[in-house]
């Protein structure tokens, strides 16, 4: 309940922003005006379980990533840098997205968005793309049934409201306080199973 409450608060931040500023459509920019897909390559001998990103080690429901069980060992992969946004292009409804805090490489099924416009803060863009509104939009353009993929061109047409840099900084700071609360609640949930197990073992002796 706590997690859902803070997720609603984050969504409300963007909803309120759009309501307040709906009279200034010129402040809406397409993703294509803000960033590009990475066209850089990285040698696979530089990749590890920690910095290789595939669809399988991106976590569902915007939970980031975990270490990979499989790492490419030959050839090259799509390169990403800290500050880039990595988005799974397979089954968009799983909502797999990660804000890179390290450099590394990714599989071809992971889209790497690199900022090209200094009027937007990378974290502000990331938090916009973490919202259900974006994933709902992406689902409208999927291709294929068994293994649906997002449409790369359609994704680039998604529009984001871009306020001043100072406003963006305030919004990011507010959202990050909510993200801390969400992380704390998730930690409690992850530890609950171990605590339950310990209690059961104690009374079953």
> How would you describe the shape?
globular
Helical percentage: 25-40%
- Average pLDDT value? 90
Distance between the amino and carboxyl termini: 34 Å
User: How would you classify the helix and strand content by structural class?
Assistant: alpha+beta
Overall radius of gyration: 19 Å
In the predicted model, the low-confidence regions spanning at least 5 consecutive residues are none
> What's the arrangement of strands in the largest beta sheet?
2-9-6-7
Compressed to H and E, one letter per element, the order equals HEEEEEEEEEHHHEH
Number of helical segments?
5
In terms of DSSP E residues, the strand content is 15-25%
* Biggest pleated sheet: 4 strands, antiparallel
Task: Tally the beta strands.
Answer: 10
């Amino acid at each position: 309940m706590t997690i859902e409450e803070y997720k609603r608060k984050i969504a409300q931040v963007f909803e309120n922003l759009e309501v307040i500023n709906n009279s200034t459509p010129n402040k809406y920019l397409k993703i294509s005006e803000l960033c590009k897909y990475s066209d850089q390559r990285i040698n696979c001998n530089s990749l590890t379980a920690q910095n290789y990103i595939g669809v399988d080690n991106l976590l569902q429901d915007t939970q980031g990533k975990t270490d990979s069980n499989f790492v490419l060992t030959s050839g090259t992969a799509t390169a990403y840098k800290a500050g880039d946004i990595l988005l799974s292009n397979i089954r968009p409804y799983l909502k797999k997205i990660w804000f890179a805090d390290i450099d590394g490489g990714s599989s071809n099924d992971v889209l790497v968005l690199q900022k090209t416009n200094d009027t937007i803060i990378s974290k502000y863009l990331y938090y916009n793309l973490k919202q259900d509104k974006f994933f709902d939009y992406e689902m409208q353009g999927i291709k294929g049934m068994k293994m649906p993929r997002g449409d790369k061109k359609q994704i680039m047409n998604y529009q984001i409201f871009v306020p001043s840099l100072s406003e963006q900084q305030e919004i990011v700071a507010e959202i990050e306080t909510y993200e801390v609360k969400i992380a704390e609640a998730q930690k409690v949930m992850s530890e609950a199973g171990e605590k339950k197990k310990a209690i059961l073992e104690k009374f079953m002796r």
